[in-house]
Amino acid sequence: MAATGTKSVLFVCLGNICRSPIAEAVFRKMATDAGVVDKWVIDSGATSDWNIDSSPDARGLACLRKHGIETSHRARQVTKDDFMSFDYILCMDENNLSELNRKAKLVKNHHSKIELLGSYDPQKQLIIEDPYYGSDKDFEKVYEQCVRCCKAFLEMNS
Q: Which residues are catalytic?
């Protein structure tokens, strides 16, 4: 459980190796730069169990590094406890959203607010597409979307 006075956010995508670790790393950097990182519990996870304990995709890591951001995240699957302990669960697309809502229904008294991360995008790009089968340009687009959304989300929760 998060300590009193802290907020918590879990970023979620299908495999937790492309989109959600980028979002987690971007948000952690923003919270650090804003001097509020100690007020947040920040993590990311997957709806699937395909990549458990894997490092993020090398293209995602390269994209983050290009922007001066590092991450040591290891992929993990969303657990029942996550629905009890995280204030916000922010996901990338409609499939993630329906899967999370389905899992949440199995958890008594869950209090997480489950939303699309893209719902915070000032440019109104609701869906953050999976760049796995794409190019470096697609990872850059994910990064840019995460920056816009995380900035708006952090501002709303400051």
A: 13, 19, 130
